[in-house]
Amino acid sequence: TNGFSIVGELDADGNMPVLTGEMHIADTWDGKNLYFENVCFDGAPTATSPSGFGFTLQNKNGGTKDGKEIGDITYKNCVITNYTKGLMYEWGKTLKIGKISYDSCEITNINVDGTVGGDVFDIRQATTIETLSFVNNTIAQGMRTFVRFDAGSIEGLVFENNTLYNLNFVD
């Protein structure tokens, strides 16, 4: 297969389709790319998940395979909001990821009250990432730590033309 992509179609008022919840990387993932464009990811509480959702994308509950290959992960012109902990979480099993890019996204209300983590990009094991890129984004409201790496490596970090405001950074 060629990975997985969602490209949202804006309605007449310019609203994006909304995906509520979080994504988990399963052991059966084929190692190809993840691509998202014109989609709103919302981690706010729902009737079936009254405490809301932690991360947009995580490996913690995705399985037991170590050294999982992901390919590139791209968010373009997306809204990512209302997650209680962050954008990505790898815990317990290593990943090998190509480029991760956030391009022209609005990232808001991530762990706004500072009570349940908030390490926005949280890597705990020997995961490798080719490039982590944030370009032309608005990033606001919340966050304890923007990038947390306990182990592993990022070969390149790009952070250009972003607007930041009302961030909590306490670590």
The secondary structure category is: mainly beta
Order of helices and strands: EEEEEEEEEEEEEEEEE
The count of helical stretches stands at 0
Q: Mean pLDDT, as a whole number?
A: 87
Overall radius of gyration: 15 Å
Helix content: under 10%
Number of distinct beta strands: 17
N-to-C terminal Cα separation, in Å?
Answer: 41 Å
Strand order, largest beta sheet:
1-4-7-10-13-16
Biggest pleated-sheet summary: 6 strands, parallel
Low-confidence stretches: none
Question: What is the general shape?
Answer: globular
Q: Report the portion of residues in β strands.
A: over 45%
Concise synopsis of the structure shown:
The strands form 3 sheets. Strands 1-4-7-10-13-16 form a 6-stranded parallel sheet, with no helix packed on it. Strands 2-5-8-11-14-17 form a 6-stranded parallel sheet, with no helix packed on it. The termini are far apart.
Kindly describe this structure:
- With 171 residues, the chain is mainly β.
- The chain is built from no helices and 17 strands.
- The protein is globular.
- The chain starts with a strand and ends with a strand.
